[in-house]
């Protein structure tokens, strides 16, 4: 019988009720005897999954489904709560490189300054977990890092400002709940200011008074309660002050019942820390600890690992009831809270129909965009006193860069305690709490740092040395490499606790300051110190002149770091809380008045601007050859165009021009060109035009994608690549505007220069000899319906406009078709046009060029298995037809530089102009435009 709204099912005996008061873990990646006993015999109602239980998203989904099936078959009236630690950054119990996105840690998200981004990341995380059947996330972390010196929380905390922690914590709660999972704030009353006394196995101690806690550490917990957080985990810490003396917080009536329940009025589920922590089990015992935790006010008792200990906990609670230590009404009270949370987030229907891998695949593009945006916005340049960034400013192409990284253990998976267990840490470890899985890693530190070295090397064309360092300090090998290098990047990972890293970074920084040039004179070497975990390593140490923080050393974080180091990404992050310091900007950006393009008013001025741009000494200017105002004006009912200008209203001159096109059938928005008067470059005109274009496209309802570059009009297919120097400059410029240039496609305009002497390569002619396929050349609007049906069937609405234009113009344009001989169904098509056709007006490289023609927009149906032969047949017939007409040069106006481009090279085509097509998700621009 199912429970609704927290009602306790009738006919549910006491032993079954008691099982609902426990959350337990187990060993194994499938159903084991241990978990079967817990669910079938003891009716345990909540299961904690740890990294050691999880191999992949697919395996996790199956495991959760098996657990829920086991519970239903055992007579559970309601589904299990399945809980997980998934804090992001380095704390991920579920890791799946293919199906689960990597998001930044809590502090990295705070460094972006965007509360909207915090909510989006929380929602995305919850959606992914929910797709696997997980219905409860143990988060967010609400601890205020009031003492950052030796606190193991590090970047798991949002920061040291209680109001900032509150604001970001509340947004995370909203996001998790919107994503369909229950929430759990931790670690009440706070892990943000701990003192370490006694032996390593002892729990740490909070020495703050309740008044002090109330003014700082408890502020985010109050905000979370007001927001409607579902549950709260009470931490495994001691308290010692004039008002309170507590051995374990989760066993204290003063903290749980009096403070959390009564004073702070929390009505949700209270979860104990894992009672298998060594200090508690040694000093009190599991049975006694269970009774004390329940009497203190905990609703769910957590035991994570050993079946004998878990049975001891269950029996202890039974004994407490039998001997009158626990009132039976308390069982009903806790049970109602747990069932109320279950009713909100679970049902048997949900439990047996998780969205699964298919939903994860659907979510992946959006979540990848959110992740990249967050990492890109989190990188923080704390100081750059000598303006060493970007490195391309201070290093010559022939100079060697040295990368020094620490030898570190794998990234920690889960919670607080494992982070203290590094043998290189100077702080005693504490709490052997089995609730913390010590086996999770996103990727070992060495693997990530090797990939960082490879990324830096690609920018240096191999002129990079990379070695590690340890507690042995600066060795002769390091000194030799330092002498040879012209610049140094030193990476630290929690140097505040790993003191050898602090000393090493300072030593290297000093050697760089005292460096001697080739002529024997003092010449300081650029030295950049990068903290890839806690940002507090050198936050207050001004002896480190250039200091960058990434907060995580995941691959995505370090990829963003490389972009910052080389100027492709402007660092936008800020240190959290009281350490907050905006990176200095070199100059304030001029904001220009951007107006909508008016054809009657601006055409003549635009033609003048285009002439100026065409005549500048740049290879990239060739793309504008023969371009006029009419080149950019489509007047197509299926395309919404909005163009913008920066102009001098007095002289009527145009200083800049930008085009946007929204293709209604594909819901894709394009920025087709940004053109600035060469004499007015570096005055922020391009920035202003770009910002206006983005805002215009964001207003298009239903837009699914942003794209830099457009196929038609055929001017700029993306970022021009013909001139390597100019390409690098433009790529960096667009990256600073927010485009993720690492997610791009190389595309090209190709040309066959001497058609008069051309002949088909030997063997390719057989593509036309297939008796199953017939080819024809058609002109005119009477073929429009058949061609539109073909394009629709092939899902190529992106080229419908150019086909319609070709069919409406019998003079100079036509379509070659490949048809199945048996039923005359269209298998493929290409468009051909000469320079006098209407289409040529929108292709500047073709327009008014005597003896030139263009092949465009091949569309091949998936109905025919040998698509390559269809493409070859269409191309060969097109070339033969154009050769017969006496044309000398043939352009192919758009092709991706992949295997297809290689087959075109075999036909005699070469790249005439190459570009980098860059795409982005609309949510990225929504987040870029505000917080």
Please state the average pLDDT score. Answer: 86
- In angstroms, what separates the terminal alpha carbons? 46 Å
Relative strand content: 15-25%
Q: Judging from the principal axes of the Cα atoms, what is the shape?
A: globular
- Determine the CATH superfamily of the largest domain: Glycoside hydrolase, family 3, N-terminal domain
Biggest β-sheet, characterized? 13 strands, mixed
The first-level CATH class of the largest domain is given as: Alpha Beta
Which tags fit this structure?
931 residues, alpha/beta, Rossmann fold, Aminopeptidase, 4 domains, six-stranded mixed sheet, 34% helix
Could you walk me through the main structural features you see in this protein, from its secondary elements to its overall organization?
With 931 residues, the chain is an alpha/beta fold. It has 4 domains: 20-361, Glycoside hydrolase, family 3, N-terminal domain (TIM Barrel), CATH 3.20.20.300; 379-409 and 444-579, Rossmann fold (3-Layer(aba) Sandwich), CATH 3.40.50.1700; 595-743 and 922-928, 3-Layer(aba) Sandwich (Aminopeptidase); 754-887, Aminopeptidase. 34% of the residues lie in helices and 18% in strands. It is built from 27 helices and 32 strands. Strands 20, 21, 22, 23, 24, 25, 26, 27, 28, 29, 30, 31 and 32 form a 13-stranded mixed β-sheet that branches. Strands 14-19-18-17-15-16 form a 6-stranded mixed β-sheet, sandwiched between helices. A hairpin with a 6-residue loop joins strand 21 and strand 22. The chain is globular, with a radius of gyration of 33 Å. The two termini are 46 Å apart.
